[in-house]
Amino acid sequence: MKILTFILLVIFTGQFALAQQENKIIETGNNYYRQQRFDMAELEYRKVLENSPDNKTAKFNLANALIRQNKTDDANKLLAELNVEENKADVRSRATYNQGVMLTQQKKLEESIESYKETLRLNPNDQEARENLQKALLELKKKNPPKKQEEQKKKEQKQPPKPKINPREAQQQLKLLEQKEKQVQERLQKNSKTGNSQPKDW
Q1: Cβ(197)–Cβ(191) below 8 Å
Q2: Other Cβ atoms within 10 Å of 104 Cβ, number
Q3: Using CA atoms, how far apart are residues 119 and 136, in angstroms rounded to an integer?
Q4: Which residues are CB-contacts of 128 (< 8 A; sequence separation ≥ 6)?
Q5: How far apart are CA 148 and CA 162, in angstroms?
Q6: CB neighbours of residue 131 within 10 Å
Q7: Residue ranges per domain, the chain?
Q8: What gap in Å lies between CA 55 and CA 19, rounded to an integer?
Q9: CA-CA distance, 184 to 43, in Å (whole number)?
């Protein structure tokens, strides 16, 4: 029993030392990242992933370094790996948020909107995702205005504006029309009495 305990202790001690070493490498990569030396940061994060391919921190940071270097395809693959059911919601929400940012930069607004929505489903309190979603929606609306509004604008441009009259003026015009009609009727009756039924030349 003592031998088994000793072996487990050695294994845990070795894993702890490896984790500490990986954290130091990640911190070195983070320092390069802060200095905007994204290529050097990438190398450090890749060192960690060689030994621990499932290290989520290294994977996430590597994706960010790749985004900064415009290596979007590689970054997107890493973020997609992080956005799987088995990962925690906070890891997934950060991955989908970064995908949304990357898609917005690529002017893929519909896809970025879906990424921000997914981020908010995973983390409803993410204010940055909410703001970026609103910006993307506004940008999309500017880019593709609703068809009904466009059709309405075209109709308004084709038709001359109708003058607006108040009810009192409308009543006066109606009386004038009635008087003219009455006069026309009277003339027609006079003409029929006098026998003048000649067609008019236009």
Answers
A1: yes
A2: 20
A3: 14
A4: 97
A5: 21
A6: 11
A7: 13-144
A8: 10
A9: 97
Contact by Cβ (8 Å): 92, 59: no
* The residue to which tokens 């008087």 are assigned: 179
Name all contacts of 147-152 with Cβ < 8 Å and 24+ positions apart. Answer: none
> 72, 102 in Cβ contact below 8 A?
yes
| Dist CA 138 CA 144 (whole Å) | 10
* Per-residue pLDDT tens listing for the chain (202 residues): 444 444 444 444 546 666 788 889 889 999 998 999 999 999 999 999 998 898 999 999 999 999 899 998 999 899 888 888 777 888 888 999 999 989 988 889 899 999 999 989 999 999 999 999 999 999 888 887 766 666 666 666 666 556 667 778 778 877 877 887 788 777 777 765 555 444 434 3
pTM, entire model: 0.62
Contact 73, 79 (CB under 8 A): no
Quote the tokens at residue 32.
């390069």
Calculate ∠ Cα 90-96-100, nearest 5°: 140
Please give the DSSP secondary-structure letter assigned to residue 146: -
The topology under which CATH files domain 13-144 is: 1.25.40
Report residue 136 as tokens. 């993307």
Q: Residue 99: is it exposed, middle or buried by C-beta count within 10 angstroms (0-12/13-18/19+)?
A: buried
